[in-house]
């Protein structure tokens, strides 16, 4: 939830800030990338403070961040296509969609990275 909320908000703010400087495609890519990376940073910061949730390690693996960076192209362009299909021209809407789509992709990457095939995902219990 942290990654989704932060990714969407950062994507929308990015769209608001750089709307006049970039075209819609470049805006979507930048907003998605910044939203996903901000979600990773905030998640790591909160889990490092001992929230007691999530897998045993509190950091997002570097491999997941690299995959999320590559996925930022696909997710951002998908957000641009959804915005075009729904006739949304607002940069904030495109940025929020891109941030949301990338946060979803990043969350799925983190879940699949920490899950052993054939095993249910585990949540670390607070002691």
Low confidence ranges: none
Count of helix runs = 4
* Mean pLDDT, all residues: 77
Q: What is the number of E strands?
A: 0
User: What's the alpha carbon Rg, rounded to whole Å?
Assistant: 15 Å
Distance between the termini: 22 Å
Question: What is the N-to-C order of secondary-structure elements (H for helix, E for strand)?
Answer: HHHH
- Share of helix, binned: over 70%
Shape: elongated
Given helix and strand content, the structural type is: mainly alpha
Please outline the major beta sheet. none
As a percent range, the share of strand residues is under 5%
How would you characterize this protein structure?
With 127 residues, the protein is an all-alpha fold. Helices cover 70% and strands 0% of the residues. The chain has helices at residues 2-17, 24-48, 62-85, 91-114. α1 (2-17) packs antiparallel against α4 and α2 (24-48) crosses α3 (62-85). It is elongated and about 45 Å long.
Features:
about 130 residues, mainly alpha, 4 helices, elongated
Quick structural overview:
The protein is mainly alpha-helical.
Topology of this protein?
Elements lengths: L1 H16 L6 H25 L13 H24 L5 H24 L13
């Amino acid at each position: 939830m942290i990654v989704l909320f932060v990714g969407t908000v950062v994507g929308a703010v990015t769209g608001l800030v750089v709307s006049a400087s970039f075209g819609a495609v470049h805006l979507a890519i930048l907003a998605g990338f910044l939203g996903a990376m901000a979600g990773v940073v905030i998640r790591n910061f909160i889990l490092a403070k001992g929230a007691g949730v999530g897998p045993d390690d509190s950091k997002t693996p570097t491999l997941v961040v690299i995959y999320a960076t590559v996925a930022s192209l696909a997710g951002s362009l998908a957000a641009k296509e959804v915005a075009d299909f729904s006739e949304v021209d607002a940069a904030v809407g495109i940025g929020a969609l891109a941030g949301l789509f990338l946060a979803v992709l990043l969350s799925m990457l983190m879940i699949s990275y920490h899950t052993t095939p054939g095993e249910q995902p585990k949540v670390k219990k607070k002691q």
